[in-house]
Amino acid sequence: MRLPKIFRTSFEYIRRHKWLTLTSLLVMTLTFFLTSLFVVAAVGSDKILRELEARPQITAYFQDDASEQEILAVKQELEATGLTLSVEYVSKEEALTIFMGLSQEDPALLEGISSNVLPASLEVKAKNLADLPKLAEALEQEPLLEDLQFYKDVVEKFRRLTETVRLVGLALVGTLSIISLLIILVTIGMAITSRGEEIEIMRLVGASNWQIRGPFLLQGALLGIISAVASVALLYLLLPFLIPYISGALVGIPLPQTGPAFLVGLLIGEAFFGALIGSFGSWIAVRKYLRT
Amino acid sequence: MIKFENIAKDYNGLSALSDINLKIEEGEFIFLVGPSGAGKTTLIKLLIREQLPTVGEIYYHDWEVTKLSPRQLPELRREIGVVFQDFKLLPRKTALENIHFVLDVVGRGLEEQEELSPEILRLVDLQDQQGHFPGQLSGGEKQRLAIARALAAEPKVLIADEPTGMIDPASGWNVLNLLRKINELGTTVIMATHDAAIVDTLKQRVVELDKGKIIRDQKEGEYASS
Q1: Is A19 helix (H, G, I), strand (E, B) or coil?
Q2: Do residue A2 and residue B49 have CB atoms under 8 angstroms apart?
Q3: CA of A208, closest CA in chain B: separation in Å?
Q4: I need a surface site. Which of A258, B7, B26, B220 has the fewest CB within 10 A?
Q5: Which of A13-17, A101-105, B40-44, B148-152 has the lowest mean pLDDT?
Q6: A244: exposed, middle or buried (C-beta count within 10 Å: 0-12, 13-18, 19+)?
Q7: For the whole prediction, is pTM greater than 0.80?
Q8: B75/A206 Cβ within 8 A
Q9: Dihedral (C-alpha) B156, B161, B166, B172: value to the nearest 10 degrees?
């Protein structure tokens, strides 16, 4: 069948069942929108996790009177254990620079702060996470130590949270995909039923199965693609409102990439998935009418 | 060309056809006669595989009709055109669009459709009704439109199931003359009918069915057995 004709037929099917089409579009758009959110959440939490993992796993803060030489001696001791991936010295001045960078938007915090207020520190990463307790123990025996921050638990907790987000997301998106498929089945089923006579006549005058199936497959695929486009558009409109909310909760962690490239990728992926779900649903719906 | 071998068809245990053996050659004009319920329509449905026989084989050339793949079935149906008892016209399409529809199904392009459709309607003398919907046509006109639609696919065999049953006698003769012309142009015509006058006038091969069996197969026969 020629393409323009198949499109005309598909559009006619859609027009005849406006409300049903609208319902299926809404359900599918919701599915894709939630899928998008979970993709953003999954990509985002993955990035955050990597960021957390890349951070120093132990930060040792030293007393105010500890000199640079003394701290560097501790650094050498730690490196001598062979367990560290890196040990970095952060001087009081550097600490101030970092703090000022983080607090730029809150000038009140910066008033009266000088490099003396902030402690110098060593940022330690272990080659192997299992060695962290040993390193922490060694540090705790240093007389010059003021405080010790141990990130292992935070990373672990966040890793578990990320996995949960992924599992819940997958389950939800899976369920909604099935609902979308069923909705497509009903929508296309109605379109077919209302055309039962026509399909019967088509078959009797020798239309091939593809000539009958084509417009319905196209209809399903169009529903899927339209829903995908609508959901990504919705996400695009809502992101500016979501981003400040998210970045408020995650100080100092760069936000997941949600730029145009990400959205276009998401759009292509979901449109493909939508076309697949839509045409698959139509295929099943038409199948029983084509048995001879 | 067409061969029924030992065909039987049951509906829920009730026999509609049994012991059917029938050969039809290319270019023949055949009347299928017999009372209502004798099995004429069932025989037609089996030939285009709208239904499957309970036992037996049906051949169209070298195709075994009961074993055709889904891909071959449309080809068979394009070779064998059927004018249905109840016309089966598309009610929401005009006469012209009903023809377009079949031309589209058999793969004719848009230009060809626009060129051929009026010609086909002229063949059955419906050129003035081309914009009418089936509901606006008389019984005879609907019947002619149904024939025109069957012809559009250029079938090798044309089957007409009681084509004069629901129309007035004058229209009936028009339809018959049309079928004869089609037959003279080389198309095999199989016509199921109750109309004794038509059968007796044409003196063609008559196959009579009764209670699902062939009880007569006569060359140059008449409606009633002599």
Answers
A1: helix
A2: no
A3: 5
A4: B220
A5: A101-105
A6: exposed
A7: no
A8: yes
A9: 50
